[in-house]
Amino acid sequence: MSSQNIKPTESELEILRILWERGPSTVREVHEQLVKTKESGYTTTLKLMQIMYEKGLVKRDDTNRSHIYEAGVSQEKTRKMMTDKLIRTLFQGSSSKLVMQALGHHKVSKEELAAIRKYLEEMEKSGK
Amino acid sequence: MSSQNIKPTESELEILRILWERGPSTVREVHEQLVKTKESGYTTTLKLMQIMYEKGLVKRDDTNRSHIYEAGVSQEKTRKMMTDKLIRTLFQGSSSKLVMQALGHHKVSKEELAAIRKYLEEMEKSGK
DNA sequence: GCAAACATACGAACATTTTCGTAACTCAGA
DNA sequence: TCTGAGTTACGAAAATGTTCGTATGTTTGC
Q1: Residue B36 in contact with partner chain A when CB distance is under 8 A
Q2: Predicted confidence (pLDDT) at residue B109 exceeds the cutoff of 80
Q3: Whether the Cβ atoms of residue B82 and residue A86 lie closer than 8 Å to each other
Q4: Res B39 pLDDT > 60
Q5: Does the CB of A17 have a partner CB in chain B at under 8 Å?
Q6: Tell me, what's the ipTM?
Q7: Taking CB atoms and an 8 Å cutoff, what residues of chain A touch B125?
Q8: Is B119 exposed, middle or buried (0-12, 13-18, 19+ CB in 10 A)?
């Protein structure tokens, strides 16, 4: 395990999402993306990314004047971390409760349903 | 819609969880429960609950000296809100991705799996 | 009636997160 | 070379969340 266990703040998460989607990017590029959803100044984005760098949430290549940033934590790990937390804090540690919540209150296409069911059957088979 | 859309903070959520479990309770009772997990002073709990009252996150009956607090937002709504948010922010809006994440990375008992599968089948049936 | 225990209210310190202004440096083009 | 646009670094204000001390009021038991 590396320094992955740091919990990103709300704003940091927004930036991570952009980095996951775009891959390595400059502050400018991240910022352009960010302002599509959210009012904010360039140096705000810069500062946030600098802080994230100190925390190890992003990596950066500063050989050029415009530094290139990329995510330092994987989407996968972050998803797991936050899902774990949600299950623990709001669903009494029961992942099946969360599953039913997600299935019950969100539109899921037929195809998705089928995929889930298949996934489930495999689990039941291969699992204990 | 009432004032349900207020997002509880971390600490507020801890208190809500206790209120959901215990039902109407005094600050003292909530506090006793809280200190089992977390170091904190009585007036801190009190202050938090007062703030929650102002925000509408809890209701209270102050006819007696010891006020009786109860949750002002339901566990159900809160679960939905936070699950929605997780799906939106980390799973590209796809609830099935979250479902697979939850199924894949958490221990789910055979019984739970079966229950989910049944639930799923019913959905597919009624849904079509 | 009085003291001790217990309750609320509330200001304010503290901690964390977010926002931005400003200084300083680099680079490209006229 | 000079200027203007673009970049980083960084301090510090602003906003939000957490913690607690203290004042004050109420109740209980002796």
Answers
A1: no
A2: yes
A3: yes
A4: yes
A5: yes
A6: 0.90
A7: none
A8: middle
